[in-house]
TrEMBL record:
Signal peptide: none annotated. The keyword Metal-binding does not apply. This is Magnesium transporter. GO terms for cellular component: plasma membrane. InterPro entries: CorA_cytoplasmic_dom, CorA_TM1_TM2, MgTranspt_CorA/ZnTranspt_ZntB. Its main location: membrane. It comes from Amycolatopsis rifamycinica. Keywords: Cell membrane, Membrane, Transmembrane, Transmembrane helix, Transport.
Amino acid sequence: MYRDGVLQKEDFPVEDVPEFLAAPGTTVWVDLCEPAEAELARLAGELGLHRLAVEDAVAEHQRPKLDRYDGHAFLAAYAVRFDAGTGRVTTAEFGAFVTPRALVTVRKDDGFDIEPVVRAWDEAPELAKSGVPFLLHGLLDHVVDGHYEAVQALDDEVEALEDLVFEDRPDSSELQRRSFRLRKSLTALRRVVLPMREVISSLMRPELELADELTRPYFEDVHDHARQAAEQTEALRELIATVRETQLNLQGNRLNLIMKKVTGWAAVIAVPTAVTGFYGQNVPYPGNGAPSGFWTSTVVVLVLSLGLYGVFKKKDWL
């Protein structure tokens, strides 16, 4: 609980919220992690929260959004974490009720660590006098920074994938596994990152009064980071598709090169096969039964084979 921009009390029961809000100049933040339905319903009744917003806070797999109701707004978003070991993106869904003097965060599970948000609030006491906009900015700034960090980590993974594609002897199965895993992670990230541009842009509208003059530049900075994360996510999506297409093209080129060499060597080998087959016929021929016939065929085989090898090498067929 903040009073006139100064932190006054922490770790109090939810039942004390109406008493705090009755005093002028107070701002309250309430965090609920996997709340019971009765607990959330009681708090909703005390703060006048809309029934549809309460249903959205309890329901899972909501799209990131900002809904406006009479006297308050409801925010749905996702915190993101990238696991470098598995290459997977994990998301943690949460909702937030934004009232003129209270911010209520509802976390669906403990996957979203709220402690960094609290530390960010403690490190910016000069903004605390803004009340709820100060709390909302700290929350969104942490969430969007997590989005941006995950995008940067995926960018590094894609660069490593590019290096793997152009190795002399790339492991095709490993390339396919990594590219599929990255595309899956990027799809999950894109689903929660792209809508955040619209969410932050909406809450900055003057008629909503969710960002005051003091915090507006900070919200604009968060919006800029959200836009960068969204644009880079789209660029990575195209880049992964390009990497996959390049891999297939390189595989096709390597196959064509192998076939060209095999065909060239087959032509070289066909010459001695034809000569020795001709001399193996069961009718008399020049040099038949004499050493000169053997040496003549040997010379013909060598000359023609070396001649073909030279021609193919000059044409870069071998």
